[in-house]
Amino acid sequence: MGQRPLVVVVGPTAVGKSRIAVEIAGQIDGEIISGDSMQVYRGMDIGAAKILPEEMVAFNGRSIPHHLLDILEPDEPFSVADFQAMARPLIKEIYTRGKVPMLVGGTGLYIQAVVDPYRFKEVSSDPILRKKLEAEEVEKGRGYLYRKLEAVDPVAARRIHPSNVRRVIRALEVYYLTGEPISTTWVVQRENAADGTATRMVGLTLPRDELYRRIDLRVEKMISDGLVEEVRGLLKKGYSPDLKSMQALGYRHITEYLQGQCDLEDAIKRLKRDTRHFAKRQYTWFLRDPRIKWYDVGKYRSLLKIASEIASDVAGQCQEA
Description:
Blueprint: E1 4-10, H1 17-28, E2 30-34, E3 66-67, H2 80-96, E4 100-104, H3 108-115, E5 118-120, H4 127-140, H5 144-152, H6 154-159, H7 165-178, E6 186-188, E7 197-205, H8 208-225, H9 227-236, H10 251-258, H11 264-287, E8 292-296, H12 303-320
Parallel strand pairs: 1-4, 1-7, 2-3, 2-4, 7-8
Antiparallel strand pairs: 5-6
Helix pairs in contact: 1-12, 2-3, 4-7, 5-7, 8-11, 9-10, 10-11
């Protein structure tokens, strides 16, 4: 094999990335690096759909190491730049063990920051400016800051969801502090994560109706598995609802229920809806990348069947490189 392979597995939430990736890793002797922005946090297991230890074993009995899970407390800051700084050395470390690194997840910017490394410019924050922007959003109404962002940095606005006020504020903060759109700090270098690496990108997909059915079932299972109790426990430990981690899908919705802002039925309904919208945004992000080879999970008789075909394809591509 002329180049060292880096296998990337992406796709929308609930498509089956975690389990399929374990089976691929079992066949190509891989180790998995989580490319999910929520799975880095300890104690946030159910809402983040974190893979269980017993699920980290392939059908062939091989135990698959997973990296960048449970490395931070929910109130510790973590950015895409932090992820890049951790993931790139991990890839090289996995090579030294003679294993194949696999980057698996649905957080598009995290994946891209490794596959096409961004060179991040550090921009300091201004707490006074941030408080002023927060007050403006409250005074002028929801969506006011997003409209300002659309005017000064349409590129960033297309990548940031309107409801993600924290990221909108950060983008405006950078613009006001530097005079430049935050999107200009996202400098992409068209090179692989490590010299001599052959990156093989795999996308998992499902027909929309089936994916939405799986999303609904996943949300219902999260509730039955104890998501409400998980969120209640985090709040009791003193974690603020305003934290980046607590604003994530599921945690925000259940927090609103626990604070009496809605009933549980409404929280679950909105969580299903917002997760479907999130899956659509994931598709939009990944479909822009022509390097991704897509596999329709619904066309395979079993999880093992699709994993075997992907493992075979990946191995063949790397031999040709």
